[in-house]
Write a structure and sequence with these properties.
mainly alpha, two-stranded antiparallel ribbon, globular
């Protein structure tokens, strides 16, 4: 089954909740997030990092891999 339609999701809020950072300006356009944002803002983790920090790090890292390495194009 496929579903189509519009959404009123606030993607800036989603980035804050899942990645721990808030994109500004042209770092996010609609549903597109610039890979440079992930490269510059991957949170540092160490042995004392909490579970939420580790999860945000992993999400950022995976998104950077997918968007920057696996599906790289000239539009970033």
């Amino acid at each position: 089954m496929f579903m189509t339609g519009t959404t009123d999701t606030d993607y800036v809020e989603v980035c804050e909740r899942l990645l721990g950072g808030t994109p500004v300006g042209d770092e996010i356009i609609g549903t597109k997030l610039k890979v440079e944002l992930l490269e510059c803002n991957i949170p540092a983790i160490d042995d004392n990092s909490g579970e939420e920090s580790v999860q945000r790090y992993v999400r950022s890292y995976i998104l950077q891999l997918i968007g920057g390495c696996l599906f790289a194009d000239k539009s970033n």
